[in-house]
Amino acid sequence: MSPAFPSAPPTLGLLGLFSLLLLLYLPAAQGACNIPPEIPNAKPELNSLTSFPVNSTITYKCNEGFVKIPGKSDSVVCLQSNKWSKLSEFCNRTCNVPPSLRFASLKKQFSKQNYFPVGFTVQYECRPGYKRDNSLPAKLTCLQTSMWSNPSEFCKRKSCSTPPDLLHGQVSVTSDILLGSTITFTCNEGYRLVGAHDSQCILMDKNVVWSDPHPECTEILCHEPPKIAHGGIKETQDSYKYGSSVTYICSEGFSLIGEKSIHCTIKDEQGEWSGTLPECKEEASLLDKRICHQWQKKLLCWSQQQLKNQPQQMLQQLMLQQPMFHQQGRPMLQKLQQPMLQQPMLYQQRPVTLKLQ
């Protein structure tokens, strides 16, 4: 028969139970709350706090990829009952701010919004210079991937007016005449462009217009041809266009030396006469009729250099053995025999070699 142990006094049993309850309700006895509760998709900002007395507030922050639902609370408070206030889920997946489109902008009701949950749709309106393509939706939707749906080009560029033809020139359209496009102008050969060389379709006061006025092609003209001594132009004109030519002729008794014609060309978009001007040189012939008539029986002979307007005493040095004849008002020589020289003949202090026929 086993020995019997004495039982604990009733007072000691009650004391142990009381101590256990005191440990369980220690925070309540001290007037504080436990660690804040867990909230889906969010974390409390404890800032190194280890105790949470009554009336203390803890704010939560959404995890990456989630944002706060507008209008919902994001904090809890330690109540007098030493319990935290209730907090429902307030973080949700969302898309970033909708993209800025070249041809459209967000409508005003969405421009200040920063919460775009999955499935949310935003609407756009066309920018100035663009017109609506009603066959395509003007909206984007936030997808499950937290990405916006791909935008279609639901606004098209407006078109500038069709440029008129350029008289004596060409208008070059590279691609089209829509907003942002550029056209160029060139003139035909012989014409000069007056005005802009190109023009761009731009936006002005919500309308699309050409940036520069339509230019003109003006004909390039040369100035009046230069004059030459002892000669002139065969046929004069009122104006001298690019490509035209003039022909020079000499006065009676002069011969043309050089090219007889010059042409109107272009240099630096200006008219310019080409080539070197010809010259009119006096023909190697008898003296004029006045001298010939005065000295009907005397003849001037010449060598490589022409003898003209020399003193009369020099003319008297040459005596003819045959008379001089006239044909149609012009002097004419018969074949000469050896002329008789009264004394040596000098021209510009140099001996003259007579040319015999």
Question: Would you write up a description of this structure?
Answer:
By secondary structure, the protein is mostly beta strands. It contains five helices and 32 strands. The protein is rod-shaped and about 140 Å long. Residues 1-8, 11-29 and 285-357 have low confidence and may be disordered.
Number of beta strands: 32
Low-confidence stretches at least 5 residues in length (pLDDT < 50)? 1-8, 11-29, 285-357
In terms of DSSP E residues, the strand content is: 25-35%
CATH class descriptor name of the domain at 221-284:
Mainly Beta
CATH architecture of the domain at 221-284: Ribbon
Silhouette: rod-shaped
Q: Provide the gyration radius in Å.
A: 57 Å
Would you tell me the overall average pLDDT?
78
Can you count the helices?
Answer: 5
Tell me the span between the first and last alpha carbons: 189 Å
Largest sheet: 4 strands, antiparallel
GO cellular component, one term: membrane
Signal peptide: 1-31
Keywords: Complement pathway, Disulfide bond, Glycoprotein, Immunity, Innate immunity, Membrane, Repeat, Signal, Sushi
InterPro entries: Compl-Cell_Adhes-Reg, Sushi/SCR/CCP_sf, Sushi_SCR_CCP_dom
